[in-house]
Amino acid sequence: LPERVELAPLPPWQPVGQNFTLRCQVEGGSPRTSLTVVLLRWEEELSRQPAVEEPAEVTAPVLASRGDHGAPFSCRTELDMQPQGLGLFVNTSAPRQLRTFVLPMTPPRLVAPRFLEVETSWPVDCTLDGLFPASEAQVYLALGDQMLNATVMNHGDTLTATATATALADQEGAREIVCNVTLGGERREARENLTIFSFLGPIVNLSEPTAPEGSTVTVSCMAGARVQVTLDGVPAAAPGQPAQLQLNATESDDGRSFFCSATLEVDGEFLHRNSSVQLRVLYGPKIDRATCPQHLKWKDKTTHVLQCQARGNPYPELRCLKEGSSREVPVGIPFFVNVTHNGTYQCQASSSRGKYTLVVVMDIEAGSSHFVPVFVAVLLTLGVVTIVLALMYVFREHKRSGSYHVREESTYLPLTSMQPTEAMGEEPSRAE
User: Fold this and answer.
1) Could you tell me which residue ranges the Ig-like domain spans (predicted)?
2) Is residue 213 a contact partner of residue 281, using CB atoms and an 8 Å limit?
């Protein structure tokens, strides 16, 4: 029987679609004319050849396919002594496993930012299609010499690696993001340029955030190197320099906002940032005469609103008190007016910045009674009704007497009225 039957080592990785050689070495065994060497994939015979020399070496080319990935290959010797009545003696080598792969010639698709600000992060994606087996590929992602912690996922023949790139202060400047995909001892690589920058500001400052009226306030805006700032439309003299303006604080400046814009050019792109600050001006209380009438004419027993408004910083308290008394009328809310409100009022706005007083006169017109006109109207109505009834009574009495008198100086004939006897054919009597 053969002393040694061994399959030579296979390639660590074999590209799919390319040939590799199976090689089996056999030492010993006789008679050689009855010794055969068989090359196997699984149990499939790939080649059968006689063992001729000593030691004998049998080879066979094999075209690698995806199905060969992980397949065991071996060789077997058969010493056929059946013609001599001794049977078939078989000896098999230890199997060897083949690993095949597919790695496309195209580089990976690398998606990364063109620029990244210091102390900020951004996702980076690296994808490669058409590789086999994708699960055994190795991915390396790096920002400069900083290796990124990548999460690798594969779906079919597609591999995707995702990582987060964080820019550090010592990396400022031009850098590269690199993605390497390695499989079967071969590598595909993609690179993208990345500019790491620092963009400080803009920072807007007030010399006095809360300034008394009449004081001088300085407003300044600054940013980092190479940054051009503009404060309320006025640009700084040069990039990297601050912009400033001064003003005398007035009441109209209370609540005023100052805007600063900053512009930085990075890799041909212009980046913009804005910032603002608000000024508070302290000024004494005032009452707007235009919205607070100094002479009011109202009618008694009506509802009105005293429309007076005060302003100031801090916001003042407004009270309106009647002169010579402690009577106070509400301001800005409806109240019922009567004749007792008639008089002069001192409307005073007060705060920690001082006081301001405005005199308001209320002229309340007393309303006339509604009883007198009604009474007179009732009397007139009763008089008219009485006269009409009297005339009707007189007329009825005269008609009942049957005669009417005329004055003697009248040249007209006297009037007569027909008596009942005349109606019966009797001679009528002469009227007196």
Assistant:
1) 2-78
2) yes
What's this model's pTM, rounded to 2 decimal places?
Answer: 0.61
Instruction: For residue 16, give every residue at least 6 positions away whose Cβ sits within 8 Å of its Cβ, in sequence order, or none.
Output: 64, 65, 66, 100, 101, 102, 132
**Angstrom distance (rounded) from CA 190 to CA 59:** 40
Task: Judge whether 239 and 262 are in contact, CB under 8 Å.
Answer: no
Helix (H, G, I), strand (E, B) or coil at 153: strand
Residues 371-388 pLDDT 10s: 445 454 556 777 766 776
Domain end (from 146, 171, 197): 197
Give residue 143's Cα distance to chain centre: 32
pLDDT at 415 > cutoff 50:
no
Task: Centre a 10 Å sphere on the Cβ of residue 207 and count the other Cβ atoms it contains.
Answer: 13
CATH classification of the domain holding 348: 2.60.40.10
pLDDT average, residue stretch 183-192? 96
**Could you tell me the CA-to-CA distances from 198 to 119, 127, 148, 192, 269 in Å, in that order?**
9, 30, 21, 20, 14
Ordered alpha helix ranges (H), 37-131:
none
Position 57: which residue type?
A: E
